[in-house]
Structure formats: C-alpha cells, structure tokens
Amino acid sequence: MKRTAFAVPLALGSVAGLFAQTAAAPPSPTAALEASIKAAQSAGDNAWMLTSCALVLMMTGPGLALFYGGLVRKKNVLATMMQSFTLMALATVLWAVVGYSLSFGEGNPFIGDLRYFMLAGVGADPMPDYAATIPHQTWMMFQLMFAIITPALITGAFAERMKFNAMVLFMTLWSLLVYYPMAHMVWGKGGLLNAFLGGTIPTFDFAGGTVVHITSGVSALVCAIYMGKRKGYGTEPMKPHSLVLSFIGACMLWVGWFGFNSGSALSAGGLASAAFVTTHFGAAAAALGWSLMEWFHSKATVLGAISGAVAGLVVITPASGFVTPGAALIMGFVGGIVCYFMVVKVKAMFNYDDSLDAFGVHGAGGTLGALLTGVFASRAVNSAITQGKSGLLEGNPGQVLNQAIAVAIAWGLGIVGTLLILKVCDIVCGGVRVSEQDEIDGLDLSQHGEEGYSLEG
Q1: Model pLDDT, residue 177
Q2: What pLDDT shows up at residue 422?
Q3: Rounded to the nearest 10 degrees, what angle do helices 136-154 and 180-187 cross at?
Q4: C-alpha dist (Å) from residue 207 to 145, 150, 266, 421, 428
Q5: pLDDT of 11-65, one tens digit each?
Q6: CB under 8 Å, gap of 24 or more: what pairs does 232-240 form?
Q7: Which of 144, 157, 193, 456 is a plausible cystine mate for 220, CB 3.0–4.6 Å?
Q8: Angle subtended at Cα 343 by Cα 401 and Cα 177, rounded to the nearest 5 degrees
C-alpha cells in the first residue's frame, strides 16, 4: 500500500515535468522558419508602403505644384504653387482630427464613425480588414496622401482668380462633405460601393478613379462655371508661362503615380508588380494617343504629350490592379484621344474657363477609366475578385452597371456638394473671387505680397 501511495505522486510529478519540458522546448525549425518569413514579408511590405507614401506626397509637391505652376501666367505662379503646398498641411491636420475616422471608421454605408478621432487607436498593430501585413499607422498615412492630392487637383479649374482665404475654407468643407464620404463608400468597411468588404453595390476602384478623379474633376467643372471666366479670357493670350516647369512636374507625376497605383496593392507582391506595369503602359499609350490627335490637327506639342500622359495615368488608376497590360494599352490610348477631345473640342464648344483643364483630364478621364474597369477587370490579375464577378469580357455585364452607378454617385456628390460649399464660401468670405484689380495685378502680389520672378535691371 505504501509503495502505491508513493508511486502515484511520483508518476504525476513525472508527467508534470514532461509537460514543463515540452512547454519550454524551443520551436521546431519549421515554425521558426515560418515566423522568420512572416516577419520578412511584413518588413518588406512596410518598406514598400512607406516608399509609396513618399511617392504620392511628391505628386502634390513638387509634382502638381510645378505642373500647374508652369501652366499659369507668371504673375500667378507662386499663388498656384502655394495652393498645392497649403493643402499638404491643411489636409493633413483635417485627416488627423476627423478625416481618417470618417473615411475608414465603421459607421454606415455612407460615412464612417468617430472611433479614430484624433487618430485614437491608430498604432503599430496591423488592420486585418484593410492591410494585414503593415502597421495601422502606415495604412493611415498612405490613405492621407490621397486626401492631400485630391482637393489639390481642383485648384487647376479656378487658377488665377480665387481668393486664398476662400480656397482654404472651400477645401476644408469639400474634404468633409465630398471626399471623406466618397472614400468611405468605395474603400471603407461596409461602404455602399465597397467590392470586398460588404458593399451593397460592389464597385472596382483600385486606386481612386471615382474617389479621386471623378469627384475632383466634376467639382472643378462646377467651380469653373460658378466663378466665371478669367478677365480677358478668349480675347487676351493666356499661354503657360513656363512649359519647362510643367514638363518637370508631369515627369514627377508619372514617377509618383507608381506609388499611387502600385502602392494600392498594400504589399510588395505580385499585385503591386501588375499595377506598376499597367500604370506605365497606360500613361505611355495615352501620351501617344494625345500626340497623334495633335499631329493630325497641326503639330505634336510638349504640352499635349505631358497632358496625354497625365490623362492616361488618370484613366488607368481605377483599373490598375484589375486589368492586363494589353487592356492597359487600350485604355490608355483611348483615354488620350477622349481627353484630347474634351479639352480641345468640348471646352471650346461650351466656352467654359477650366483654367488648367482639371475637368477635361480628371473628370472625363476618371469617368472613362471607371467604366472601362467594368469591361476589362480580370480575375487572372486580381484573385480577390470572386468567381464570376469580374468584368464584361469575362462574362459579367452587371459589373459595368455597378461601375456606372458609382460614377453617377460620384458625379452627383461632386456637383451638389461643390455648389453648396461655394454658396457658403461666398457668404463667409464676401465672395470667392478676387477683385478685378487684384486679378489684373496677379494673385502672387494681391494674395501673398510676393513675386515669383524678380527681374531687376
């Protein structure tokens, strides 16, 4: 009996010791290798996404600032560049306070909630629903860069005639009433148009055809018509004062756009490579398409070539992570021709003063790109597309309808929201347009008390 009494505790102790040894045992080589691979993937993805953040920020300043700055008359170059630079600061602060939360908080199908107010809870842990291999802060910063450049695109429509204080108020309200709701609807979890996170009307928009280009381009058209033409428009020459600056800016936009589109893969894998390729091919084909139209008419110009390249980048943006390189060539070439027609023919036909053709390139190009995405989207390119839910050419005509609905919502929000905001700015700022004398003197002097060029002697 005594032996039995001692044997039971001894046996239990041996078992407990065995479990302790097992718990303390080092992980197997296979588990260690898997952990190492996962850590390396996360580090690589984060490095690419931080690089993409920098590339997209470069698109606003200096890219867009130089592109737009060279297209205006020299008395307005600083004011035009200042608008892009100001938005780098203004949009950032708005994003930190409420913008990120309204865009990506889980609110309702139209707008997010305030769970991330002042970036509360936005730290180093990943966001599995959005980007599972990078820190939440990296994801937040990447999306911020889109919120910066989108309103900056609108400034091209009212260049050389809007008050600076009115511009600041307009962009603040526009971000709150137009951009954040559209971003939530298309990209936010539970958003009305989100194709992958519970949207009612699944829409394909890889990097911002509806969210960025349609909303900004349509809003630009509304601004141009609402504010009226520049003094002397149609009777006085208003040629770009420095195509050299615009050329440099366009090249920076082309390079930065790889971060814009390829970065939207949210990882450094094959999808990023696919978006990189289609982005480049779309821009190249559009530059040739626009130049070809000019050559038929008269001469191929530098301004036309760089405008065509930007148009191609706009058109391919919503499709960049969904279509093949061949489709990108077709979309880019068609986009170059269509945007040329909008800028050269339609603008003259309706006689509106969209100073730097923000609508002709971004509004028209974004609309075309969003619709063609529904035609060419391929499951072979993006495995996130569920079986039978790709584009028209793969047997799903319903996707074109979904894209058209998203386009209509973006147009409607841009028109109604912009008109309302302009009315408010008119009241608060005592008019959104500078005085006639200030316009004659130029916005550099009248709004900022500076000159872009000092040509003494």
Answers
A1: 98
A2: 98
A3: 130
A4: 12, 12, 11, 26, 34
A5: 434 444 444 444 455 667 777 656 766 776 789 999 999 999 999 999 999 999 9
A6: 233/353, 234/351, 238/73, 239/73, 240/70, 240/71, 240/72, 240/303
A7: 157
A8: 55
